[in-house]
Amino acid sequence: MMKQILEATNLCKSYSNGSVMQHVLRNLNIQIYEGDFTVIMGSSGSGKSTLLYALSGMDKPTLGNIQYRNEDISNYNNDKLAVFRRKHCGFIFQQMYLNDTMSVMDNILVSGLLVTKDRKELKKKAEELLQAVGLNEECYHKFPSQLSGGEAQRVAIVRALINSPEIVFADEPTGALNSQNATNVLDVMTDMNAKGQSIVMVTHDMKTARRANRILYLKDGIIIDELNLGMYIKGDQERHDTLRTFLEKMGW
Ligand SMILES: Nc1ncnc2c1ncn2[C@@H]1O[C@H](COP(=O)(O)OP(=O)(O)OP(=O)(O)O)[C@@H](O)[C@H]1O
Which residue ranges does the record assign to the ABC transporter domain (predicted)? Predict the structure, then answer.
């Protein structure tokens, strides 16, 4: 049986837009399992990013419970949430947020040094991860502006992995990349997942979504259905068709 890593119960998130309250998440329930590559889909504005930020402790829910293993993080203050994120989570965004004034290696080490002071060990791990995502030594001392979009996103993935997070959250990680770079980044993420990394990703894109083994569909602030796709197999047309049929049924 799959082990649950994260569970949210009766999750609500509302924003006040002037005198009007907008209820984005409405008593939403969700479970995330260890080792899964979970994708959250839904139409624009359905609350996907809001859900991702609440689940990952980047933002606080208005109401509801979020349980990370045996820890209830829903009532944590900002300091405790920051510690939680640093200890357990890795983040990959559409905008890479690399520091332009630092080399590739320093961008990664700065994240690692928040957790350990063993610089030598960190550097070794960073080198291993950079190699694993297909970036060679030539890249280590480059600055972000000297990288292609795909290379920069792979650096961001290494930075997300440097502290061995139990779970990686990704918000449209390929949204700003051309098709080839997007495929490279997705290959890295698929490989990470095949090695056991739990991933929760938000995307609009079917090509990206079909890498996941579990697709959740968000509508009007709740998860209305899910699809189990099994582990990704390259070139599997049936998988693509199954996902398309599911999304059509959802009214996507
Ligand atoms: N900080 C905020 N303040 C007020 N409203 C917000 C805030 N963040 C999000 N919203 C609103 O909540 C709704 C859901 O936003 P969210 O970004 O979660 O949707 P999404 O499904 O990720 O959309 P998209 O696919 O277009 O990125 C939107 O109507 C948005 O305007």
Answer: 6-245
